[in-house]
Design a protein that fits this description.
Distance between the termini: 32 Å
Number of helices: 4
Order of helices and strands: EHEEEEHEEEEHH
Shape: globular
Oligomer: single chain
Largest sheet: 9 strands, mixed
Length: 208
C-alpha cells in the first residue's frame, strides 16, 4: 500500500499538465516515462513526472505536477508566483524502493508546505524537513536547476495567463546546512557548483 502509485486519474488540469510535460520533454530531449499520482488527503494534489536517464542527461529527473495550482504571495517579483519542483537522482537509483517514495514525499512536502503556510518559496530558500525523518538530510535547498545550461527550463507557460517557475530541490546534509547557516547562500552555491571540480546536483549523492 504505497502512498505513491501509477494511476489513471490525474490531479492537475489536463491541458496544463500536457504543457508541463511538453516543456520538460523539450528540455530533457525525451519522452516522459511515467506519471505518478497520489491518493492522499492533501488539499493541494501533486503528481510526479518521471524522466529516465538518457544520453543528454544520464540520470533520473523527477518533476512535480500540481504544485503550481497554489498561487503564492508575490515575493521578489523576479519569478512567477507559482512553482513546480525538480529533483535529480543517479542513473542507478532504484525507483521501486522506499527511498524513492521518500523523495516523492520530499517534493510533496515542499509543495504543500507553501500551500498550508501561505508562504512564498523561491530560489536560495532552505526549508527544515526534519519531519520527514531522514537523519542524513535535515533541510532542503531550493535553487535554479543550474546543471541545465539554458535558462529556458526555468519558466514554463502552463496556460494563457498561468506560468510557473521550475526550481530544483536539493536535500542538504548536516554539513551543508552548517555552511549555509554560518557563511550564507554564496558558500552553499559554491559547494554545489564549484568553479573547479564536479558539481553536486544529484539529490541522492550517488554517481557524482
Amino acid at each position: 500500500n504505497k502512498l505513491w502509485k501509477l494511476m489513471i486519474d490525474l490531479n492537475m488540469k489536463k491541458k496544463e499538465l500536457n504543457n508541463l510535460i511538453g516543456h520538460f520533454q523539450y528540455c530533457f530531449n525525451q519522452e516522459c516515462s511515467k506519471i505518478y499520482t497520489t491518493d492522499n488527503d492533501d488539499e493541494l494534489k501533486v503528481d510526479f513526472l518521471l524522466f529516465e536517464p538518457n544520453e543528454d542527461f544520464p540520470f533520473y529527473k523527477v518533476v512535480s505536477a500540481g504544485a503550481s495550482d497554489y498561487q503564492m504571495p508575490q515575493s521578489n517579483g523576479l519569478l512567477p508566483n507559482r512553482n513546480e519542483y525538480i529533483i535529480f537522482l543517479s542513473k542507478d537509483f532504484n525507483i521501486q524502493s522506499d527511498e524513492f517514495n521518500w523523495y516523492l514525499n520530499l517534493i510533496n512536502y515542499v509543495a504543500t508546505y507553501a500551500y498550508y503556510e501561505k508562504a512564498s518559496i523561491t530560489y536560495s530558500h532552505a526549508i527544515d524537513i526534519k519531519q520527514l525523518n531522514n537523519e542524513k538530510f535535515p533541510a532542503v535547498f531550493i535553487n535554479f536547476p543550474e546543471i541545465y545550461n539554458d535558462s529556458y527550463i526555468l519558466i514554463c507557460k502552463l496556460s494563457m495567463f498561468k506560468t510557473c517557475a521550475c526550481l530544483q530541490l536539493m536535500p542538504m546534509t548536516n554539513q551543508e546546512l552548517d555552511e549555509l547557516t554560518q557563511y550564507g547562500v554564496a558558500k552553499i552555491l559554491d559547494t554545489y557548483y564549484p568553479k573547479e571540480g564536479k558539481p553536486i546536483f544529484l539529490a541522492d549523492r550517488k554517481g557524482e
